[in-house]
Amino acid sequence: MASAASAINLWYIENATNGALGQFAKRSLPEANDEVVLHPHLKSLLKRWPADEAVTEQERVANGTAALLGLIDLMESVFNLTLEESLYAVWPNPFLNSTPAMTNQPDLLLVDGSEVLQEIPLWPIIQPVRHVDFVIANDAGGTDLSNGWMNGSSLIDTAAYCAANNVSFPKVPDQATFINYGFTIYPTFFGCNDTVDTPLVLYAADAPWSAFTNETFLQSNYDTLQLETIFNNTFNLYTFGNNTVDAEWSGCLACAVTLRSMQRMGMEIPEFCNACWDRHCWNGTYNSTLPNDFFEPTLVLNSTETYEEFITNPEGAGLTPTNASSSN
Fold first, then answer.
1. What are the pLDDT digits (tens) for 207-233?
2. In this structure, what are the phi and psi dihedrals at residue 38, rounded to the nearest 5 degrees?
């Protein structure tokens, strides 16, 4: 699960240091003449839509973190904690003096993966020593776009990090391709045709299947019906509407779980599974043209119901999307 708390850490640090620290790449875009070295895929967002999207996202998180500033100050004054101790987990270093880098380092500051641009906690799982065959990447950070929906940035960052560190990971496209091909709406496989040493990844972003769940991180209290609405939306997302959108989806999941084992044993992959990859696996093609309209998905299971209609129903009443005005 993506961690909103770590994102808040970064936003707080940015505010507290007047923008010098804590920059969060997925909401802050380089200028058109900036040279992007580490993550060239971000160049595809230099003409992000609408034109004020980056500013809108900056304002959203600034407003959201304003109330936290006093709490952090209180933690520092009452418990005599430093800023780092307030925001991060300080843990005794079990590797003290074991290597030159660990010399005279009595504590480790444990942080979330989003602070290296990866909100989905994949990096510890996909280490080669683990020999992982299949992993589900749940993307629910809500920090990619100002309306709280995702555009694949976290998975893209993980792929870039793996490539830079020689760790096997499926190739993934850019953010525009994620949106144009519906990869942020429908759970999608990556790496179906890769070698056995590359984990097969199922990417599933928070998306409106039966409810608008682009919730603001400021809302912390939900009643039973609201929780059931959110949980049911997640169920529909991961089951393709309980197999109503694709009657064979459960079988496709079984193919994904066993694919690397079948490859390792030299077994012929069933045609059923190959048909699943044709429907649900990225085939390596790109569509990097930004859509004409801002990404505003409708309900998959009821595309005619608008956001305004949704919140008039009992299950939608009280839910507060990140940007309600643009969830329609």
1. 999 999 987 666 777 888 988 999 999
2. -70, -40
